[in-house]
Design goal:
By secondary structure, this protein is α+β, with helices and mostly antiparallel strands. Helices cover 15% and strands 40% of the residues. It is built from 3 helices and 9 strands. β3 and β4 form a beta hairpin. α1 packs across α2. It starts with a helix and ends in an 8-residue tail after the last strand.
């Protein structure tokens, strides 16, 4: 979670918008549960106290209110817009596209795409607590109000 903590100030100051993809595998009562999803860090940082995640007291996991949520076992899938991003499904095979509401730039999270979008960078992060972590940082040309 250090990579997320390093982004917190820039996100809260409106200098950066970040989307994080998490795939988390957990075992409880002998059953394996895999959940994945895309989280609007701007949205979650404004609505939650992240110290518990930064200190390792709890794991940050996608929930049904995030940009997207998928439970592999129940096959429940949800997608939601946030204050920062619209969620679009591209029918040409690219998958999910997130559009920044302020500057209207698209972020393509398809791993096969070399450039995720204008003013956007993708970072694959190794974290032993998660199966997979990917962050997209988007620098908006317009000032954001957080």
């Amino acid at each position: 979670m250090k990579e997320i903590a390093d982004r917190e100030e820039a996100i809260l100051e409106g200098k950066k918008s970040s989307i994080i993809y998490l795939r988390e595998v957990s075992k409880k009562d002998g059953k394996t549960r895999t959940i994945s999803g895309y989280i609007d860090l701007n949205d979650r940082l404004r609505k939650e106290e992240f110290g518990k995640y930064f200190r390792g007291e709890e794991k940050l996991v996608p929930n049904k209110n995030d940009l997207s949520y998928y439970c592999f076992e129940s096959q429940i899938s949800k997608s939601n817009a946030s204050d920062t991003f619209k969620v679009e499904i591209d029918d040409s095979g690219l998958g999910l596209i997130f559009t920044h509401k302020l500057d209207r730039k698209s972020i393509n999270v398809n791993p096969d795409v070399v450039e995720p979008g204008d003013n956007t960078k993708r970072y694959d992060i190794i974290d032993p607590d998660y199966e997979q972590v990917v962050v997209w940082d988007h620098e908006s040309r317009r000032a954001q109000k957080n």
